[in-house]
């Protein structure tokens, strides 16, 4: 199936506004029904394809993404997570290109000293 068709599926990505409307909130679950819809969206979201037709550049694209985000956040002193949560509470998981939190947390970025 075409990735374009999957990404424009009004059932999966409609959220009342249509799949072509910029709506980042469509990925934020506010209820049990939203969680089910988001799981369906994640199954339908195939920017790199799947299976034997998977994009050969996916690993390179993801490595570039991690590198770019690392360079963006490098000049900042600290990432303050929800009040009262320490770095140890994050429960970081070591993966190939870095550490990732087990659960999503809200972040507040503090500007560091000029490099």
Automatic annotation (TrEMBL):
Domain of life of the source = Eukaryota
- Pathway where this protein functions: Antibiotic biosynthesis
Gene Ontology terms for molecular function: heme binding; iron ion binding; monooxygenase activity; oxidoreductase activity, acting on paired donors, with incorporation or reduction of molecular oxygen
Q: Does the keyword Repeat apply?
A: no
Which UniProt keywords are listed?
Answer: Antibiotic biosynthesis, Heme, Iron, Metal-binding, Monooxygenase, Oxidoreductase
Cofactor(s) recorded for this entry are: heme
**A matching Pfam family:** p450
- A single GO BP: antibiotic biosynthetic process
What is the similarity comment for this entry?
A: Belongs to the cytochrome P450 family.
Q: What is this protein called?
A: Cytochrome P450
Q: What organism is the protein native to?
A: Pseudoneurospora amorphoporcata
Q: What is the lineage of its organism?
A: Eukaryota, Fungi, Dikarya, Ascomycota, Pezizomycotina
């Amino acid at each position: 199936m075409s990735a374009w068709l999957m990404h424009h599926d009004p059932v999966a990505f409609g959220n009342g506004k249509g799949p072509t409307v910029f709506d980042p909130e469509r990925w934020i679950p506010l209820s049990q029904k939203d969680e089910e819809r988001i799981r369906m969206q994640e199954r339908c979201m195939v920017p790199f394809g799947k299976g034997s037709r998977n994009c050969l550049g996916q690993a390179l694209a993801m490595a570039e993404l991690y590198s770019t985000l690392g360079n963006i956040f490098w000049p900042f002193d600290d990432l303050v997570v929800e009040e009262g949560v320490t770095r140890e509470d994050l429960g970081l998981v070591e993966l190939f290109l870095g550490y990732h939190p087990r659960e999503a947390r809200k972040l507040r970025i503090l500007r560091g000293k000029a490099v």
